[in-house]
Design goal:
Layout (H helix, E strand, L loop, with lengths): L1 H22 L9 H30 L18 H20 L7 H7 L18 H5 L14 H4 L7 H11 L3 E3 L5 H10 L8 E9 L8 E9 L7 E8 L14 E13 L2 E13 L8 E2 L5
Parallel strand pairs: 1-2, 3-7, 4-6
Antiparallel strand pairs: 2-3, 2-5, 3-4, 5-6
Helix pairs in contact: 1-2, 1-3, 7-8
Pfam families: DUF1980, DUF1980_C
Keywords: Membrane, Transmembrane, Transmembrane helix
Organism: Paenibacillus algorifonticola
């Protein structure tokens, strides 16, 4: 009977942990918003399983008898104290961590292990956006006629996979200053990377935490945010490299500080790759947002 009671306690504790994380607004630190409903519904299943274990405990108490191989009832688990302690500890330990350890936010330490992605367009390649490919596809102007600038549509060629980014890029192109918003953080960085030639020297505003690696040198650092797909285990940091004239330009700022930076978009070489880079204009410290992670916008 005691095993059923202990199982009921563990199941109830897991359900209460979900409720606690939800009420304290910490659930989003572990899973993406689109998964929260399923996790909350699972708490109901845990409650139901706990009630079933209580029922079995009461039933066993009322029907105590001498067990035999032919009685057909459920027999007690192993009498080994060590074995039972190990098995139940596998469930109690994560519960203790969930209730008593402070909720952590992924930052520079995790970014160093995962590596910051400076090429948001890695998995999306539009037609005609390789360096020089767009220019080569445009008709050669006559020597006696002034060259005609490409139309907006010609600047943003697309295929079936990048149509939404091309349309978004046309809107961004017409803005004097471009802000990377939280709701479309990944999509904005992807668009800037896909059509980078169209956005050179544009003023870009972006916020995130400071990430620094030794091979970046003293005149560069990254501003990034973790993008979560399902849960914190699959979160990947995306961001932009920031170029400064000297280390004094961001003196007083340290890794994991949340900042808002503004600068002119350009490119630079990093680890053998040409990446988007901001030439710093301004930097200011900001409070960490309530939700430090960003998510793919499925309405994009």
């Amino acid at each position: 009977m005691k095993h059923h009671l202990l199982r009921a306690f563990i199941l109830t504790a897991f359900a209460l942990l979900i409720v606690y994380l939800s009420r304290s607004n910490q659930l989003s630190l572990y899973i993406a918003p689109r998964m929260e409903l399923y996790v909350k519904l699972s708490a109901l299943g845990l409650y139901a399983a706990a009630i079933h274990q209580l029922f079995l405990a009461l039933k066993k108490r009322r029907q105590q008898h001498q067990h035999t191989a032919e009685c057909g009832c459920e027999h007690t688990p192993s009498p080994s104290v060590f074995k039972n302690t190990v098995i139940y500890s596998l469930f109690i330990f994560p519960l203790a961590l969930g209730f008593f350890s402070p909720a952590g936010v992924l930052g520079s330490t995790a970014a160093a292990k995962k590596g910051v992605s400076f090429a948001a367009s890695t998995n999306v390649q539009p037609l005609g956006t390789e360096p020089g490919q767009l220019a080569a596809s445009l008709p050669e102007p006559s020597a006696s006629i002034a060259p005609k600038p490409p139309t907006l549509e010609e600047r943003f060629p697309y295929d079936e996979y990048t149509k939404a980014h091309a349309e978004y890029g046309m809107k961004l192109y017409q803005k004097p200053n471009i802000t990377v918003p939280e709701a479309t953080y990944i999509e904005t960085l992807t668009t800037l990377d896909l059509y980078r030639d169209n956005f050179m020297d544009k003023t870009i505003d972006i916020s995130g935490f400071i990430y620094k690696e030794d091979d970046m040198g003293e005149q560069r650092f990254a501003v990034s945010r973790f993008a979560m797909t399902c849960c914190s285990a699959d979160a990947i940091p995306y961001g932009l490299m920031v170029q400064v004239s000297s280390a004094d330009d961001y003196k007083g700022f340290a890794a994991d500080d949340w900042v808002s930076v503004s600068g002119k978009l350009m490119t630079s070489m990093y680890n053998g790759n040409e990446i988007l880079t901001l030439k710093l204009n301004t930097i200011k410290r900001i409070e960490a947002p309530e939700s430090p992670y960003v998510y793919a916008n499925y309405d994009f």
